Amino acid sequence: MPELPEVQALTDFLRGRVVDLAVTGVELGSISVLKTYNPAPQALSGLMVTDVQRHGKWIDIDVDGLHLIFHLARAGWLRWSDALSTNMLRPGKSPIALRCRFSDGSGFDLTEAGTKKKLAAYIVKDPQEVPGIASLGPDPLSEAFDEAAFAALVSGRRTQIKGLLRDQSVIAGVGNAYSDEALHAAKLSPFAMAGSLKDDEVERLYTALREVLQGAITAAEGKPAKELKDSKRAGMRVHGRTGEKCPVCGDVVREVSFADRSLQYCATCQTGGKPLADRRMSRLLK
User: Which residues form the Formamidopyrimidine-DNA glycosylase catalytic domain (predicted)?
Assistant: First the structure.
């Protein structure tokens, strides 16, 4: 799933290419991808793109006051073309969920792999009309998100810190991969209770989270959309590296699997050498 760094890179990529171009068409390959009906996609035709912004994991294309907003979900991606096919999309006939055309002949397709279709697009007059944006927590890289703000979010929470980091209503933009990376960098168990973290642990996690995200943004900067997935994978130290050596201590990277996802961690770095039981709501094995 694209997370804050990849979505920021896609946002920057689009901003550098489509601002001051006119939208010439928005076509739907999947009727269900568009969650709004008014304004209609045709309302964007002929209007100029004035900006592209990110809200958590959402990309917001401002088209002269109307906003085409989309979330790529778990298996979605943006495929850019400098010379987009002139063929019109036929609903249900391709993996393309949405196509957006611009006045210079360029454009992008939103695609989604797999059978669980979660990719979502909205056309609204105000980004706050999108429920997923209206409920977002603070952006972890904003100037206002200082250590005190992070400590206040963590304080008193009776939930595992891994789940808290992934909760978009608490912190916007962090998902499974970068929560694994931040917890590894901070040397904290993913199952540590958020409200029980000591002051120095909160400080370590705040610093690690910001450094991991900013480092990933820097690594992705300037890369075309088609290279961002590989860039993300290459930058991971523990996430997605089950069975490999931890780059810090050399221990094996371990995994905990759930019904629809998994997490990776290093027992030596994060849990005092004790493996975590591979089951939901696990505790440290005794």
Answer: 2-93
Residues of the chain with CATH 3.20.190.10: 4-134
The residues facing 227 across adjacent strands are: none
Q: Using an 8 Å Cβ cutoff, are 133 and 89 in contact?
A: no
* Residues of the chain predicted below pLDDT 70: 115, 279-286
Architecture of domain 147-270: Orthogonal Bundle (1.10)
Domain with CATH 1.10.8.50 in the chain: 147-270
The secondary element (H helix, E strand) that includes residue 12 is helix 4-18
Measure the CA–CA gap between 283 and 286, rounded to whole angstroms: 9
pLDDT of residue 94: 78
Phi, psi of 276 (to 5 degrees): -90, 140
For residue 154 the two structure tokens come to 């963590």
CATH 3.20.190.10, applies to 4-134? yes
